[in-house]
Automatic annotation (TrEMBL):
The protein, known as: Glycosyltransferase family 4 protein
Originating organism: Halococcus dombrowskii
Gene Ontology MF annotations: glycosyltransferase activity
Signal peptide location: none
Stretches assigned to the Glycosyltransferase subfamily 4-like N-terminal domain: 16-203
Top-level taxon of origin: Archaea
CDD domains reported in the protein's UniProt record: GT4_PimA-like
Length: 413
């Protein structure tokens, strides 16, 4: 099958999209990915056998025609520029299925599916309406107003409208892909999706990429004897990093040489707040903010860690998603401390790969970190995590679920 994927963001670096496209390509499908492009990026590239077509972001809403496109998108959630690009691709190489990554373009994909007479797969990476709500609350109106596109999104696609779109999209899509059992239950219970149309393809990892036989980055200035706690991922409020900083301060009371490694980046104001919190707790010198790192280097930072934290706050978003970082740490044999949001608590408790603490409770998180300074306990958790990803939580299994979905679509003709 020729599968046309639509992605409203840039590519690379989206890891989930890359894994899915590669899995389908390895199964014999041809993949064309239409995505947003930057002003200096080539409009076409072939990456690992995947054809990548880019729509320059600075031209999507440029000029009178761009304004008209934008107004039509706001009114209908169907984007004319993406429609035109898909039609042109179909003329050159007929499309057999449309695979839409995340909610903003699903309505566009559904309109194209009807027009072209092809099935549509809605791939919902997260609970998008609730994720948008969390990010908008964090940024605030003042910051959003300085970003024209963010302002339009905030006004025209408020969470209540995104929820309505979500309900319509999962009912109309031929298949819906999501990341965990809790999300699947949400779409069936709250959106009216048919259970037979839902497939869970989780954010698991390629075991070869996280084999554990790597050295920590040479650029890290960490005492080899220190107890290192890490977090890897985006820095946003619902990730619960303020709770992690508070919990780490409790750990330092018992282990004064401990160090906290925060790997990633995010909202500038939020990061500044984390640094201020660390200073107020007297631990700023023991907290390292690495900034953005290449995905290929993530295993090295985990190799430097004695414990990895996934301290998500309890929100409607985090209760229905599971992050890559959990499986990355498990694959590297690093014990985990996670908050008790449903997907994290279920997996960590079931596999005994670490400890679960109440979301937002810094004292409890600090106690859990302290417990894992016991090398025997930590080693057991790390070994359990690695065994669990080898047996069940790995991309070989999840990628096959995606391929099975497409085998079913092909059989239906």
């Amino acid at each position: 099958m020729h599968v046309c994927m639509l992605l409203p963001e840039r590519f690379p670096p989206d890891i989930r999209v890359r894994k899915e496209a590669s899995a389908l390509r390895a199964a014999g499908h041809s993949i064309t990915l239409l995505c947003r492009g930057g002003p200096t990026e080539q409009s076409f590239a072939r990456l690992d056998g995947i054809d990548v077509e880019r729509l320059p972001a600075d031209r999507l809403f440029a000029g009178l025609s761009g304004v008209v496109d934008g107004l039509r998108y706001v009114a209908s959630a169907v984007h004319p520029a993406w429609q035109r690009a898909v039609r042109e691709l179909d003329r050159q190489n007929p499309i057999d299925a449309l695979h839409i990554h995340d909610l903003p373009l699903v309505q566009t994909g559904l309109a194209l599916g009807e027009e072209l007479g092809v099935p549509v797969v809605a791939d919902l990476h997260e609970n998008y309406p609730e994720a948008a709500r969390q990010i908008q609350q964090m940024r605030g109106w003042g910051e959003i107003a300085r970003d024209a596109e963010a302002l339009v999104q905030r006004i025209a696609f408020a969470p209540w409208r995104l929820k309505r779109l979500e309900r319509e999209c999962v009912r109309r899509a031929d298949r819906t892909v999501t990341v965990c059992e809790e999300a699947r239950a949400h779409y069936i219970r709250d959106c009216g999706a048919e259970s037979t149309d839902m497939t869970v393809v989780s954010n698991t990892v390629d075991l070869d990429a996280f084999a554990g036989d790597v050295e920590p980055p040479a650029t890290l200035d960490l005492d080899p004897e220190s107890f290192v706690v890490s977090y890897v991922g985006n820095f946003t409020r619902h990730r619960g990093l303020d709770t992690l900083v508070e919990g780490f301060a409790r750990l330092v009371e018992k282990s004064p040489d401990a160090e906290l490694l925060l790997v990633g980046t995010g909202n500038d104001n939020y990061v500044a707040g984390l640094k201020a919190l660390a200073r107020s707790l007297g631990i700023r010198e023991q907290v390292t903010f690495t900034g953005w790192v290449d995905f290929a280097d993530v295993p090295r930072y985990l190799a430097a860690s004695d414990v990895s934290a996934v301290p998500h706050a309890a929100t409607a978003h985090t209760e229905t998603t599971v992050p890559h970082k959990l499986f990355q740490a498990m694959a590297m044999g690093v014990p985990v401390v996670a908050s008790d949001v449903a997907p994290l608590a279920r997996i960590v408790s079931r596999t005994d790969c670490g400890l679960v603490t109440p979301a937002g409770d810094g004292d409890a998180l600090g106690t859990a970190l302290t417990e894992l300074t016991d090398e025997g306990r930590a080693d057991d958790c790390g070994e359990n995590g690695r065994a669990a990803v080898e047996d069940e939580y790995n991309w070989a299994r999840d990628g096959q679920r995606l391929c099975d979905l497409y085998d079913g679509l092909r059989a239906e003709g």
